[in-house]
Every structure is written in C-alpha cells, then in structure tokens.
Design brief:
The chain is an alpha/beta fold and 417 residues long. The chain folds into two domains: 51-304, Type I PLP-dependent aspartate aminotransferase-like (Major domain) (Aspartate Aminotransferase, domain 2, 3-Layer(aba) Sandwich); 307-415, Aspartate Aminotransferase, domain 1. 41% of the residues lie in helices and 16% in strands. The chain contains 15 helices and 17 strands. The chain has helices at residues 3-11, 15-20, 47-60, 70-89, 104-119, 138-147, 164-169, 193-202, 222-225, 250-255, 290-306, 308-328, 354-363, 376-381, 398-415; strands at 28-29, 32-33, 35-36, 98-101, 125-129, 150-154, 175-181, 207-210, 229-233, 244-248, 266-269, 274-276, 332-334, 344-349, 366-367, 369-371, 387-391. The termini are far apart. It binds 4'-deoxy-4'-aminopyridoxal-5'-phosphate. Residues 103-105, 133, 135-136, 181, 185, 210, 212-213, 233, 235, 374 line the site of 4'-deoxy-4'-aminopyridoxal-5'-phosphate.
Amino acid sequence: MSATAEKMRHGGFDVDLIRADFPVLHQEVNGRPLVYLDSGATAQKPEAVISAMADFYRHDYANVHRAIHALAERATRAFDGARARVGEFINATDTREIVFVRGATEAINLVASAFAVPRLRPGDEILVTELEHHANIVPWQLACERTGAKLVVAPMDDAGDVDLDRFEARLGPRTRLAAISHVSNALGTVNPVKAMCGLARDKGVPVLLDGAQAMPHMAVDVQDLGCDFYAFSGHKLYGPTGIGALWGRAELLEAMPPYHGGGDMIRRVTFDETTYADIPYKFEAGTPHIAGAVGLAAAMDYLDAIGMDAVWDHGVALLDYATARLEEVPGLTILGSPAHKAALISFTMDCAHASDIGTILDQKGIAIRVGHHCAMPLLDHFGLGATARASFGVYNTMEEVDALTAALYKVRDLLAG
Ligand code: PMP
C-alpha cells in the first residue's frame, strides 16, 4: 500500500496527498500551474503505477507462458496475478472471464466480430443508445454491414437521459444484443444500466456495457449489474495505455470463435487443423502488453486503497461545485442535466467557439477537451458540432474549479462583443 493510501486510511480522503502521488501535475504550463481537466480523455498516472511498470521492466521482465526460466516464471506470475486483480476489481466470479485487450475499443470490436457476427442474420437488430461513443457505434455498424443486420437506437431526451420505456420498446424479437455506455463521455450521464440489463434479460437479449468512463469514477460489480460483457480501458483508470479488459460470461466466451489468430491462442497446430486454447487465452493471440497488465493491477491497488466510494464522492463534490460556478458565467450553457451524472461537464459559450475556449484556457495552463468527443450523433441531437468539456479526476481540487471559472470569465472578456 502506498504511503498516501496508508495515511488516508486513517485520515479520510485528502486530495493534497493524492496530488503528491502524480508527478506530472507538478509543473507549469504557459507560466501557470497546470490544471488538468481532461481525465475523461485519459487520466494521469500515480507514482505507484509508474514504478510498478519500471520495477517490472528492471527486475522481472520476460515473455509470458512460453519458457521455464526464472524470469519467465516471474513475468507469468505477474501477468496472471494482474488478471486475477482485474477480476477482483470488477467482482468477476472467474478469472478466465477476463480477456486482456488494448482497451475498450478493442473489447467492443472483439464482441462485435466473435459474438455478434456469427449470430446475426439479415433483419436482426443491435440496440444502442443515442449517447454512445463512436467505439460503441462503429463496430456494430461494421457487424451489420457484414450480416445484413441493422442498428436500432434508443433515443435520449434533452436532459441527456435515456427513457427506460423507450429503451424497452426497442428490445424487439429481432434484437440480438444491446450495447450501452455505462457513463457517457460527452455528457456524464450515468445510465440506469442495471435496470436496462434487467429489461434486456427479460427478453433474452444479452447486454454489453461500455465501461470506459464508468470505471474511473465508481465501483463496478459486473455480477450486480447483470450484464453479459463489460469493456474498459486501463488508461482512463490511472493505468497505462494499450491495456484494457473485456469481461464476458464464461459460457458466452467459450461459445465464441477466436478473434485473432497466432501464437499463445492455440492448443495444437497442424497444417490441416488448429485447435484453440481455453478462454481467455483463445482471444489473446501474440505477446500481450505484459507490463501494461502489471501497471493496470497497480492502478487498481491504488484506487482500492483510496476506496472507490471516496473516489465517487470526491467526483460528486467537484461536479456540484463546478456546475454551480460555471452556471454563474454569463452566456455559458451546460449541455444536458441527466438524473445521474459523473464528474464531467460539457458546455458551450455564446461568445466563443469551443476551440477558442480550449486555446485561451491552454494559455492559462488549463487543459480541457474541445470537439465532438467521438460522439457525433449525441452532438447532432443538440444541433452542435463541438463542445468544451472539463472532466475531473481524483487529483482535482475546488481551487482548480475556481481557476477554470476565472479563465472562462476571461474568455468572455476577450471575446464577448
Ligand atoms: N467508450 C467511451 C464512453 C469512451 O469515452 C472511450 C474513450 N474516449 C471509449 C469507449 C474508447 O476507449 P479507448 O479509446 O481507450 O479504446
């Protein structure tokens, strides 16, 4: 356990202690202290993650599964341990249900290719919501193109909520899968996914949840949610890039064909025939991102030591404060007001284009995201091409919200008529 976690266990959530764990935060950008409000795009890394990966490379690094020398055994133990850690973090019943992938995008593509495509017939349907990231739209469109199936969309209202009745109404006799974001990256909406999974289960429809934006903010329990697949990325969870996981029910994964072919995913290969390894290895062709898995496990240790409930509470406090402060700024409009919301705010200003807002804030050392957030259909709903988005992490402070607010007043001073 890190020194920070040890201290916090006794003294409660302390954002200053957390900040001390993130080396990158302690710098000036354009002559101002960095205010990093882009954790929704990717989160910064605590020393615990950086050093877990560096230590692994320094002392234990080798390829996994293939050799019997000491380093290979240590590396294999670390890699297998990381898989077990991921399973524990999301309360999977069986470590074999954790497939390491590059991130949420690959996880969703894996399910689209290996689960959906073999089952889809012309006229079948995949149900998504209007809130999805492109990563949870395009793989299904590709699957539909290959099979003659079609994409059906459960609409969102102007608050950014998906109405459950309208969602249920679209679960038809031809629906073969529902693919839903747990948390929207563009609005922060926390979808009522447990209820949605229940509705889908009643109609025999399996559900994939895109957890890319949920995992950094809240405790996720895949058994409690009642989903069939859960996809997420390590880099948004304070872990490394290039690693993430797909959780899937063992019986579904077992019934699926491999996604990629190559080394490590086979039982026996001849030129006539190949038989495949058991799950999860069947889906992990080639040398995996071993150090990435080690780093991801370290990130989960770090977050668990803080406590995911404390992480959620800190996000809510930041969100409430930031919402109140931003609402003060004349001409600023916050997009959506969903019933449940994670710690991010999408907004527009009547005096400035989103990219101008982002540029002026950057000059003040404040990092936000501007653009369509890979959620063009959601922005189309609001008749917008771009918004500015401030997204918060465990290390953000109320003072940083004040700095953001002050900078937005400055945008107004500079650009309003
Ligand atoms: N889904 C959502 C909701 C996201 O926010 C993102 C990343 N912006 C993704 C999927 C894709 O994640 P990655 O790029 O890490 O694969």
